[in-house]
């Protein structure tokens, strides 16, 4: 059956869809003007809060980085052959200022291991361990930072004579074959095995290192340890 043709006259009589939608939209806004006004105010306030938060974060980030840079320069000057315990006081205080005063900044995370290193140099191994563990939690998922934190923790535990705990700290690094710090961790592990009177494990670790890292500059040292 042929489809009935719609005449031009009929088309002109039918309401235009766009005009109909526009009319409905105008009626809706007119009926809900008060509610929409409040909605607009709420959106505006939200935008102001977001903008203010972003501005504050940028300010904290910049200030934190400034203090961190000052602390880092102070530490670099203090690290010298004739360094005295008092030389580390100023950089230690500055790094602590970054941690406490600019905790939201990116620099605060990096200040943790720097402050921990100062604690380590001062012989406060427990304080250093606490800070290194905080850093380890913050960099979870970043393999390189995690490895550095674990090696630093192992060094702290070694100084405390807690050799088994130091060994446990290093083990995750040795399981990652592509880890750039694996070779260094293996040598540290071998030394710790020796200190912990685990001669067999020490020999196995050194033999594995010699087999894997044949071009390492530490190869002669590994053979000497073996």
Main β-sheet description: none
| Average pLDDT for all residues | 81
What's the CATH topology label of the largest domain?
Serine Threonine Protein Phosphatase 5, Tetratricopeptide repeat
Helix coverage percent of residues?
over 70%
Structure commentary:
The protein has 11 helices and no strands. The chain has 2 domains: 41-122; 139-226, Alpha Horseshoe (Serine Threonine Protein Phosphatase 5, Tetratricopeptide repeat), CATH 1.25.40. The longest helix is centred in the first third of the chain and has 46 residues, at 33-78. With 226 residues, the chain is mainly α. It is elongated, with a radius of gyration of 32 Å. Residues 8-14 and 48-54 have low confidence and may be disordered.
Task: Give a brief rundown of this model.
The chain has helices at residues 8-13, 17-31, 33-78, 89-101, 106-121, 125-138, 143-160, 163-174, 182-195, 199-212, 219-225. Helix 9 (182-195) runs antiparallel to helix 10 (199-212) and helix 10 (199-212) packs antiparallel against helix 11 (219-225).
